[in-house]
Design goal:
alpha+beta, protein yfey like fold, 6-stranded antiparallel β-sheet
């Protein structure tokens, strides 16, 4: 009897050892290091997205545009040199010096004079404002394209019926100019002394100013 019971117990143990619970997942605890290594080496979706997004280069950044070329003359002035601007403001900006007893044209900064640009005020002291901008350099042009050196014939083509001739009162007596009136202001084209404003005569200076029959010049 004892032998049969022992035999039965051995057989039951063998059967139980050969069975497993249905649906039990296979164990992975025997390879934790391998599993962790595989997880760390696999790229994540966020990493892929980050690597796919290019970093904008400095060259792709749009540079702030800067103005090029010389200023253009109109009846309002030359570039930032607007008629009516207080001389105190122009002095702070470095376009003119403080009044020094010399002729007003000499108050223009040396940098502007070197470029053939001369500024003249109206009024004195704190009340002085920019009244005239004169050009003697062909590098600058009017809005219509006239320059120092342009001939009377070329002015006629550029301005047509807008161009007139007029006698101004100067330091040396009356003289004739060509000019264009726009509102209360004018663009004056001065020619060499004694010129009859023949078609071949060249412009010597161009002045933007408030219209006046008097044009005394430097002093």
């Amino acid at each position: 009897m004892r032998e049969r019971m022992a035999s039965t117990a051995i057989m039951l143990a063998v059967v139980l050892a050969g069975c497993s619970t249905p649906g039990s997942p296979p164990s992975t605890s025997s390879h934790p290091a391998t599993s962790a290594s595989s997880a760390s080496s696999a790229p994540t979706a966020s990493a892929k997205a980050s690597s796919a997004s290019p970093t904008p280069s400095a060259s792709a950044t749009k540079a702030t545009p800067t103005p090029t070329g010389p200023w253009t003359l109109s009846v309002n002035g030359l570039g930032p040199l607007t008629l009516g601007t207080p001389y105190t403001a122009l002095q702070k900006q470095g376009y003119v010096t403080a009044p020094n007893g010399d002729c007003p044209g000499s108050w223009t900064s040396q940098a502007l004079q070197a470029k053939g640009v001369y500024l003249y005020p109206s009024g004195q002291g704190a009340t002085a404002v920019l009244a005239e901008v004169a050009l003697t350099n062909a590098a600058y042009a009017t809005v219509s394209g006239a320059r120092v050196g342009s001939t009377m014939a070329q002015l006629k083509v550029l301005y047509g019926s807008q161009l007139t001739t007029e006698t101004k009162n100067g330091n040396g007596g009356p003289f004739t100019v060509a000019n264009v009136h726009i509102g209360a202001r004018e663009i004056v084209f001065q020619f060499p002394y004694g010129s009859t404003l023949a078609d071949s005569d060249p412009v010597q200076a161009i002045v933007a100013r408030t219209w006046s029959v008097d044009m005394m010049g430097e002093c």
